[in-house]
Amino acid sequence: MKNNKIIGLFLFIILVIIMGFSIFLNVAKSMTSNRRVFGASYMTLVNPFFSVLDDGLREILEAHGDKLISYDAGNDQLKQIDQIQDFINKKVSAIFLNPVDLYLIEPALRSAKKAGIPIINVDTPVYHQELVDCLVMSDNYKAGQLVAMDLLSRKQGARIALIDHLSAKSAMDRADGFKSVISKYNAFNIVARYSSDGNIEQALSGMESILRDVPNIDVVFATNDPSAMGVIAALESAHLLGKILVYGVDGAPYAKKMILESKMTATAAQSPVEIGRVAADMAYRIIKGEKVDKQIYVPIYIINKENVNNYGINSWQ
């Protein structure tokens, strides 16, 4: 009789465990089924700016219990189009897009639009803005203006080399903003131009060519900080570091270090983590059917030797 009671109790405990485990599985399944999945495709994740932007996205999305799939297009537009198609096949809730080429991304935009998937364009605008739901970026035109105004405060005239990125609208806007200011002064002239596609190696090679072919360069404006690092490497090899002013855009920790060491003059700083956070917030509002502004600008500011210590040398702002 005693044995029967023990066996009965044992069976009851097993039943309770099984029921509890079953409830746990149902809850877990419910939570998983309610979890949204988002996709992000960047022109490159080699540039730490985009890795930090991705961190800002992930911070907000994961706080909501959702998942982010991030792809590096490796500056290959066809690859990025395939990535967008993969997101469409996965039926993601929204796509965050930093395009390789502002024009050639159009077929992917139309495919996502047809599938009813919102697209939040980040940092670098696409040409067909009517095909995206929202653009979150810095005021790139103003970034170029800020660089030009800092230059005007240091020189009364200059022969300038421009290292830009002809397939990225953000870089083109920075160059246009810069030119809008210096064009008012006859003593400031762009005498050389090279498209680096925003990376260090091409900027290094381009700057070496400029130094060989164009005499008396006083200033280099690189439209992002990685390109500015390539320029600095070329100047260092030519023993010209410190003799030519070097400007960038981004406000990266390594750029701030170069400013402290007097190897770089200034950078127009933006906040990639804040771009990511704002973009994630916009995605949730769009999914809920709320109306959002078509373009949202995150503040931008100049960092130079005079104020660099105010901006946290080892981190993005």
UniProtKB/TrEMBL annotation:
Primary residence: other
Keywords: Membrane, Signal, Transmembrane, Transmembrane helix
Cellular component GO terms held in the UniProt record: cell envelope
Domain Periplasmic binding protein: 42-291
Residues making up the signal peptide according to the UniProt record: none
Entry keyword annotation includes Kinase: no
Family annotation (Pfam families): Peripla_BP_4 (PF13407)
Protein location: Cell envelope
Superkingdom as given in the UniProt entry: Bacteria
Transmembrane segments: 6-28
CDD domains xref list: PBP1_ABC_sugar_binding-like (cd19971)
GO molecular function, one term: carbohydrate binding
Family statement: Belongs to the bacterial solute-binding protein 2 family.
Name of the protein in its database record: Periplasmic binding protein/LacI transcriptional regulator
